[in-house]
Amino acid sequence: MTTTSHDDVELVDFDTVLAAYDPALGLEVHVELNTATKMFCGCPATFGGEPNSHVCPTCLGLPGAMPVVNGKAVESAIRIGLALNCEIAEWCRFARKNYFYPDMPKNFQTSQYDEPICFDGYMDVDVDGETFRVEIERAHMEEDTGKSTHVGGSTGRIHGADHSLVDYNRAGIPLIEIVTRPILGAGEKAPAVARAYVAQLRDLIVALGVSEARMDQGNLRADVNLSLSPKGSGTLGTRTETKNVNSFRSVERAVRYEMQRHAAVLDSGRSILQETRHWHEDTGITTSGREKSDAEDYRYFPEPDLVPVAPSREWVEELRGTLPENPTEKRARLQSEWGFSDLEMRDTVGAGALGLVEETVALGAAPQAARKWWLGELARRANDAGQELTSLGVTPADVAAVQGLVDDGTLNDKLARQVFDGLFAGEGTPAEIVAARSLAIVSDDGALSAAVDEAIAANPDVADKIRDGKHAAAGALIGAVMKSMRGQADAGKVRELILAKLS
Amino acid sequence: MSADLPEVLTRSAADLADDLASGATTSVELTRASLDRIAAVDGAVHAFLHVDAEGALAQAAAADERRAAGQPASALDGVPIAVKDVLATRGLPTTCGSKILEGWVPPYDATVVAKLREAGLPILGKTNMDEFAMGSSTEHSAYGPTHNPWDLTRIPGGSGGGSAAAVAAFEAPLALGTDTGGSIRQPGAVTGTVGTKPTYGGVSRYGLVAMANSLDQVGPVTRTVLDAALLHELIGGHDPLDSTSIAQPLPGIVDAARQGATGDMSGVRIGVITELGGDGWQAGVQDRFRESLDLLVKAGADVVEVSCPSFVHALATYYLVMPAEASSNLAKFDAMRYGLRVLPEGVASPSAEEVMKATRAAGFGDEVKRRIMIGTYALSSGYYDAYYGQAQKVRTLISRDFAAAFESVDVLVSPTAPTTAFPIGEKVDDPLAMYLNDLATIPANLAGVPGISVPSGLASEDGLPAGFQILAPALADDRCYRVGAALESLLVEQWGGPLLAQAPALPSEGASA
Which residue intervals define the domain Asn/Gln amidotransferase in the entry (chain A) (predicted)? Predict the structure, then answer.
């Protein structure tokens, strides 16, 4: 039996995959905590900084240095676990995961192995109005590695590089790894379930306030496990693990791609190779990484430099009291407060815009207006740019400000879109852009009246129809006026003027 | 003892502290005397890997200024000390006796070293040791063996042979050692000095380059029991940088040593460990042990024999737990960030992995490689339960044996090591014979309990020192000092002076005072 990566297969049509196979999904999400200090030392756990400026003997792995557990990281881990309906261990230990890599200072990662701090939880995920229960196997604490930069090669990968640079600022930043049980029965919705799970998990992490949770900055990193089994067989096939899929959209695409690729390999009578695969954002495909057999031996054993973590039940209950609202209940509350239809709510959640709309509404925009911008204009632009709404560079504050200008009559929707152009071009705040681009609606009645007169004169047939009571015909004149005003007029007001002059 | 040995070098640290307090001497004088002694005899003994004369004298001058201002930093302010090369010292090379760390100068101090500095003890230098503390003879040092001051052709014990020899050769009044399976106590026994392994967690391990984290402890190496207590008190206590250090006050160990020195043992219950003696143990060592026991009985102690059946498995258990932890600890020596870097021969553009391999092949000695291999194997998938997992279970049994024994006795005793010092070279190629040296000392490390070794006299066969080991329950280090000080005072009275007074003169080079 051949087992190769089959990177050159002809993908199977998605519907055809579903006719023959059941997909099984598994997601591993790493969340970088926003604690002030690192997991096991007092160095700042902040993003960036001069290379190797946030380091000390402990996170550099100098001989003799020892770790001490960051209590705040334990607290964040427990809150994440509770929010995911997990059990919280009464007693658990850290373990050493031993392997050699230059960006890992000790050549072992201090992680948790068979005693995770959180285990046996679940999250209910909404996809197109249907709820999938995703079971959480575990959420455990560990430290991040340093970061290698390969210099001189064309690909930025280690092969072909002249030399590599290592920055240990990231080494020791606390991570929580959240691992699902195999998600079965999602069928055609597997890609959407994967995306919705990651999106909803991110919302939860943001609500908990334990991480910046920016996928584009690597605060939240998803690994996608996927396997196919013959339809109805009830077995689990060989899985692949696609690493570091860094947007919701990519999670969906990666699942879809792997389903189609697995089916192609299996259909040709070959076997799936258990391996790590790389996701390519630009081409939307995965390629073979390193082979990952179960024989890979990390020689885990309990970390002897740390005492066990034994959170008291009182503390756990105290932390339970600090949890944000349950996401499902929160969605129901928001839908009722906003007066959204089921479809509107589903689209909002599906677009990953719930939090954005909520923030925009909190800043004063009407719910429907907020929804309209995020799911319309901004979703279109995100899609064109292949980006997430959250990484577009337009904030809820911007959207609320633009809508405020519409509400007070300064802008109409068309002008507002030009303000967004300005925002994407980095031209300043909405008010600055309106001023700089002279976008405000002309409220000078004289100029407007003259433009209306001009349009009536230029379109006598249309004017006659309106005089005959066919008010719907006013649209053609409004268009002409707006054109001559270069859009800087309030269409409602133009209509009023036309009807008044022709009545 | 050499006739021309200046009296100041033979005095205990406690006496030197008094001399400094009374103004009878100065720290500069003491430090210079130690440095002169090192210059004179260390060519033959090789206790030191690095001597910091300039730094020590500067620290001594600062100590004298504090004394003159009436503000000594501690009772031992100004008393010089030697530090085992496994402890990180800011600005001083720290090699752990290994080529792989040759020239490495730590940017930070181990907590115990920081405490020495705060207390004002001038640091004379760094002492020799088996590479990464792996050995019982100091022959596994990459920088050559240390010689036993009692007989320069013999080993000084290990891994802390350098610290023990420095103290026994009167090069330093005090030293720090570390004890993972006996590396303080066994060298103490074979050099006629005193060494304590404190309760696990009693002294911070931060800055101790770990061999086996769950077994390692830093402790005092001295010539008297009281000195050991004074130094132990100075370095002990909770350290926020070591979460395995115990967050409760040390027992009154100095008081216990002073109380014990009265020689009154009435009401003290002593258990002799059945399993640690008999066939295979040197007769002269056992004779001195029995005589010591008799003295304690005469002083009022009740002595019974206690069986600790699991102790027969201690050595095997140790040689799974220790290498497992060591194999992981030593992974960090990879040429990427510090220490030795060796480029593979005949490779034009070597990868990081190839450099790691070449460096580790060249930088580690055979004993280190042996233990890395054993440990890697013991932790491997499919073998973990049978080896590392099983060893942890036996460890629990050994702890239970101790707990059961301490229900009926206050302390447990045995000879510290099965034999006196053996000739250099005799066991270096026979790992199993070497490992047997630690038979009696290992159980305390596996259970985390404290132990002390005090000299019990000279074995009649070879005229070399033997040691008497006293073990106590965790956190009851004071009992070790009470019984140890009592035995010491009884023996010194019998001998008419300290055992080291009987040591032969050392060949001297250059200007000895």
Answer: 355-502
Q: Which amino acid is at B431?
A: P
Partner residues linked to A227 by β-bridges: A24
Instruction: Tell me: cis bond preceding B508? Omega within 30 of 0 counts.
Output: no
Report chain A (503 residues): mean pLDDT per 10 consecutive residues.
56 94 97 97 90 96 98 98 98 96 94 97 89 96 93 66 88 98 95 94 92 89 96 93 91 96 94 92 87 73 97 97 85 92 88 90 94 93 84 89 89 88 89 86 78 88 87 86 83 85 82
CB B483 within 8 A of CB B451: no
What residues of B are annotated to the active site? 84, 159, 183
Q: Within its chain, how far is the Cα of B382 from the centroid?
A: 36
Distance CA A373, CA A375 (A): 6
Predicted confidence at residue A2, as pLDDT, reads 39
- Which domains are assigned to chain B? 7-311+396-501 (3.90.1300.10), 314-395 (no CATH)
- Give the residue from B188, B31, B205, B227 showing the smallest Cα distance to B121: B31
Could you identify the residue written with the tokens 């391996």?
A275
SS (H, E, C) A202-225: HHHHHHHCCCCCCHHHCCEEEEEE
Find where tokens 């006795």 sit. B409
Based on its alpha-carbon atoms, the radius of gyration of chain A, rounded to whole angstroms, reads 28
**Per the CB < 8 Å rule, is A62 touching B88?**
yes
Instruction: Domain ranges for chain A, please list them.
Output: 14-317, 325-436, 445-502
Residue A7: predicted pLDDT: 63
State how far the Cα of A1 lies from the Cα of A265, in Å rounded to an integer: 12
Which of A56, A93, A159, A301 best probes binding to B when mutated, by most B CB atoms within 10 angstroms? A301
Give the 3-state secondary structure of A127-150.
Answer: ECCEEEEEEEEEEEEEECCCEEEE
Q: What local confidence, expressed as pLDDT, does residue A6 receive?
A: 52
- The number of CA neighbours under 13 Å toward the Cβ of A341 is 3
Of A58-62, B76-80, B278-282, B452-456, least confident by mean pLDDT is B278-282
Of A64, A96, A107, the CB nearest to B209: A64
* Chain A residues touching B104 at Cβ < 8 A: 63
Q: Give the whole-angstrom CA distance, residue A481 versus residue A476.
A: 9
DSSP letter at A326 equals: P
Contact list, A305 vs chain B (CB under 8 Å): 205, 210, 213, 242-244
Closest A-chain CA to B375: A299
A90-99, B38-47, B276-285, B367-376: the lowest-pLDDT one? B276-285
- Best to test chain A binding among B337, B353, B373, B395 (most A CBs inside 10 Å): B337
Q: Is the pTM of this model over 0.95?
A: no
Instruction: State the pLDDT at residue A480.
Output: 87
Q: Could you say which of B88, B242, B356 has the minimum Cβ distance to residue A63?
A: B88
Cα angle for residues A82, A84, A89 (degrees, 5° grid): 50
- The token pair at B114 is 């920081």
Euclidean distance between the first and the last CA atom of chain A, given in angstroms as a whole number: 85
Residue range A445-502 forms a domain whose CATH class is mainly alpha
Specify whether the CB–CB gap between A292 and A238 falls below 8 A.
no
Q: How far apart are CA B492 and CA B26, in angstroms?
A: 28
* pLDDT reading at B512 higher than 70: no
Helix (H) / strand (E) element for A98: namely: strand A95-98
Q: Which residues of B touch A62 (CB under 8 A)?
A: 88, 106-108, 337-338
What's the pLDDT score for residue A28?
A: 97
Smallest Cα distance from A371 to chain B, Å = 51
C-alpha–C-alpha distance, residues B190 and B416, integer Å: 9
Secondary-structure breakdown of chain A: helix, strand, coil percentages, each rounded to the nearest 5: 40, 20, 40
User: Tens of pLDDT along B70-81?
Assistant: 999 999 999 999
